[in-house]
Amino acid sequence: MVICIVAMVVFGILGIFSARYRKIAKEAFSCVSRMLTFRPCVTGFDDKVRSAVTAKLMKRSERLAGAFYRNFRLLSVIFTISFFLSAGYTAYTVYNLAVYGTCDPQNPQNCVINPTDPNSVICPYEGLSPNASVATIGSFRNIESATIEGKPAVYFFGTTWCPHCNWERPIFLNVTEKFSGFIDAKVTEIDLEQPATEMEIFKHYSTEGQIPLVVIGGKYFRVGSGESLGQGTEENVLTAILCKVTGDPIEECSEPAIKQLENGL
Q1: Three-class SS string for 234-259?
Q2: Per-residue pLDDT reduced to its tens digit, 188-239
Q3: Closest Cα partner for 243 from 211, 212, 265?
Q4: Which is it for strands 141-142 and 220-223: parallel, antiparallel or unpaired?
Q5: Which of 231, 117, 247, 108 is nearest to 168 (CA)?
Q6: Average pLDDT along the chain
Q7: Which residues pair with 216 in a beta bridge?
Q8: Cα 249 to Cα 32, 126, 142, distances in angstroms
Q9: Domain boundaries of the chain, sorted by first residue
Q10: Position with higher pLDDT, 111 vs 149
Q11: Confidence category of residue 124, pLDDT binned at 50, 70, 90
Q12: 3-state DSSP call for residue 134?
C-alpha cells in the first residue's frame, strides 16, 4: 500500500491541473486514509498499478515483468522511501537557496543554481583588474569597467585577531543589515577554514594579503579599515556605495549626506 502514498502526492498535484488524474488521486487518497486507520485498502489501487506496469514490461521482457510482479511490494517500499528522501533533500536545498542564496552553503561552487556566486554578479571577476581601478570616496577603489547586475555580493575579509578588522567588522555588519534582501553579505575570517572560492576572491583584490578587505559587488573594494575616517563617516561611505549598487532601495539613501557621497562615485 506504500505506493498509494506516493500516488496520492503525485496525482493529487497533477489533479489540480488535469481532471484525468483526479479519479486516480481520489483512489490513492482513499487507500491511504484506510491504511492510516488500520483498515484494508478496498480500491485495489496497488494491484491496478502492479498490473498496469507488469503489462507494459511484458512487451519488453517476460522475465523482467515476472520479477517486477513478484517483488512489487519490496519495490514499492524502496520507491516510496526514495521519493520522500528526494523530496526532503529538495526542500532542504530550496530552504538554503532562500536563506543563504545557494543550495549548498558549505560548497557554493557545487550548486548549479547559485545567485550569490560573485561570478553571477560580475562574470568573470578574474577579468577585472584591481590595478586598473581608480580612487573614489572613503579610500575605496572603483573598477570602472565593472558592471553590477542583480543582487550584489558584498564581502568582508579579516581575521579574528586583527584589531583593524575588529574595528571595521561591526560597522560593516550594521550597515549591510540595513540592505538585507538587496545584497548578499558575507563575513569571512581568513584565519579560519574557508571555501576555496572565497579565498580566491580575497587574493584577487588583496594581492599582498592585507586585511581588512571589503569588496562590494566586485566593483568597489578597499584594502584597509576606515578608522581614519571615523565611525560616522565610515558608516556613511559604506551606505552610499551600497545605495549606489542597489539603486537606492532604503530611505536612508535619500539623506543629503549620503546622496552627496553617492554623487561622488
Answers
A1: HHHHHHHHHHHHHCCCCHHHHCHHHH
A2: 999 888 888 888 899 999 989 999 999 998 899 999 999 999 999 999 999 9
A3: 265
A4: antiparallel
A5: 231
A6: 78
A7: 154, 220
A8: 49, 28, 21
A9: 2-100, 118-263
A10: 149
A11: low
A12: strand
CA 199 to chain centre: 19
Contact 202, 190 (CB under 8 A): yes
Grid cell locating 35: 491504511
CA 204/CA 200 separation, integer angstroms: 6
> Residue 156 forms beta bridges with which residues?
187, 214
Q: Which whole number is the average pLDDT over 127-142?
A: 90
Locus of grid cell 558549505: 106
β-partners of residue 184 are 153
pLDDT reported for residue 121: 45
Q: Do residues 78 and 2 lie in contact, with contact meaning Cβ atoms separated by under 8 Å?
A: no
For residues 232, 234, 235, 238, the Cα torsion angle rounded to the nearest 10 degrees is: 160
Q: Does domain 118-263 bear CATH number 3.40.30.10?
A: yes
Give me the residues paired with residue 222 across strands. Answer: 214
Q: Where are the beta strands (DSSP E) in 29-93?
A: none
